[in-house]
Amino acid sequence: MEKAIKKAIDGGYGKKATEFTPIFTDAEDIKQWYDGYKTAIKHLVLDPLFWQALGKTEEWKINCNEHKYAWEHYWHNFIDHIAQGKDIDSFFNNLLAN
User: How many separate domains does the chain show?
Assistant: First the structure.
């Protein structure tokens, strides 16, 4: 998960303050802004801006009629992964294995 957070920051996550997201400079800033690491992860994985930034860094491209954007495809795969009782870290370890 730490690798995913760093890549999302590289992709612009937290660089521009919004109503819900302050400006971050590193993964530690994100962890401190939310109330503890577990709460931070829950917020991150539900934040479309996180997935967009991660997709930008990873240069995700898909040919899929089901989703308008590539990041949506990966986000939905993540939700399916969790719904199957699997853990967050295993999803991101597989996704970012390259």
Answer: 1
